[in-house]
Write a structure and sequence with these properties.
This protein has 320 residues and is an alpha+beta fold. It has a single domain, classed as 2,3-Dihydroxybiphenyl 1,2-Dioxygenase, domain 1 (Roll), CATH 3.10.180.10. The protein has five helices and 16 strands. The strands form two sheets. An eight-stranded mixed beta sheet has the order 2-3-4-1-13-16-15-14. An eight-stranded mixed beta sheet has the order 6-7-8-5-9-12-11-10, covered by helices on one side. The protein is globular and about 50 Å long. The protein starts with 7 loop residues before the first strand and ends in a 14-residue tail after the last helix. It binds zinc ion. Zinc ion binds next to strand 1 and strand 13.
Length: 320
């Protein structure tokens, strides 16, 4: 067996307006924009990475902004909810903050061992802020717009909505080495590696719901952490052996990846922990300049002329 999957590496979703997206995830949720680059497969559009201070694996939510006019549909065969960790003592802070920003939410509600605030971004991406013991020990962004004691501490987990979960659960448990840890109502929770926050996947089975359509307002894929290239290639081989169509290894500059569609319809990726986001700009400057891979540098001027300007919300000190 290759070394274990370590949990969620990143989650990638599709946004409409890019400025609205930055204002929500940096200005309101207090994530740090750790990388501003382009979609390597469609370089005339941005790819934004939000995370903790350094964009550690397990904290990274990324967006392809497609602009207006490409609405998707949330449904089965998708990752339908992205959940972030917050400290147990921060529930009141967050409900106040959302209320003051005019963002509607439900909760806090109790589920298993946690308290959950449910909300959506302006494009309809479903999010949760999950308060749980030990969240405060995870890194956040000390200099962000949210006081550090209350800051988001990376991912808690991801929820997959499936028409039939049998084959997906079999893949998770028998091939990817996930183990079931909890169940309630229609929810079955699995974890992997060392387990815990950042390594949960919840499966909801919705046999009657329509299949989702991946476009603006939906999640594009979920990437799982692997230690290094050797582990990546080993997992790639195991997926092929399990009968799944898996891509060649791709160089995403900040990690290396392979992609495959799990049997329930969700696009999965394996992504390496190294090299990370400080490979092309200093930790201090992360996200402050448009970064391009070497093969796109010759096109910088042309790309900068077609990409819309972005204003990053002022940060530092915490706007209490
Ligand atoms: Zn990805």
């Amino acid at each position: 067996m290759p070394s274990a999957i370590r949990g969620i590496h990143h989650i990638t979703a599709i946004a409409g307006d890019v400025q609205q997206n930055v204002d929500f995830y940096v200005g309101l949720l207090g994530l740090r924009l750790v990388k501003l680059t382009v979609n390597f497969d469609d370089p005339g559009t941005y790819h934004l990475y939000y995370g903790d201070e350094l964009g550690h694996p397990g904290t990274i939510l990324t967006f392809f902004p497609w602009g207006a006019g490409h609405p998707g549909r949330i449904g089965t065969g998708q990752a339908t909810v992205t959940s972030f960790s917050i400290p147990e003592g921060s529930v009141g802070f967050w409900t106040d903050r959302l209320r003051r920003a005019g963002v509607s939410f439900t909760g806090p509600t109790r589920r298993l061992d946690e308290q959950v605030i449910s909300l959506a971004d302006a494009d309809g991406i479903r999010l949760e802020l999950v308060a749980h013991p030990g969240a405060e020990d995870r890194p956040g962004w000390p200099e962000g717009p949210v006081p550090h004691e209350h800051a988001v501490r990376g991912f808690y987990g991801v929820t997959l909505s499936l028409a039939d979960s049998t084959a997906t659960e079999q893949l998770l448990a028998e091939v990817m080495q996930f183990r079931p840890v909890a169940a309630a109502d229609n929810r079955r929770r699995f974890t992997v590696g060392d387990g815990g926050a950042g390594a949960y996947v919840d499966i909801l089975t919705h046999t009657a719901d329509a299949r989702g359509l991946v476009a603006v307002g939906t999640v594009h894929h979920v990437a799982w952490r692997v230690a290094d290239r050797e582990a990546l290639v080993a997992w790639q081989g195991l997926m092929a052996k399990a009968g799944l169509r898996v891509t060649p290894v791709m160089d995403r500059k900040y990690f290396q990846s392979v992609y495959f569609r799990e049997p329930g319809g969700v696009l999965f990726e394996f992504a390496t922990d190294p090299p990370g986001f400080a490979v092309d700009e200093s930790p201090r400057e992360l996200g402050t300049h448009l970064m391009l891979p070497e093969w796109l540098e010759p096109d910088r001027e042309q790309l900068e002329s077609v990409l819309p300007p972005i204003r990053i919300p002022a940060v530092g000190g915490g706007d209490r």
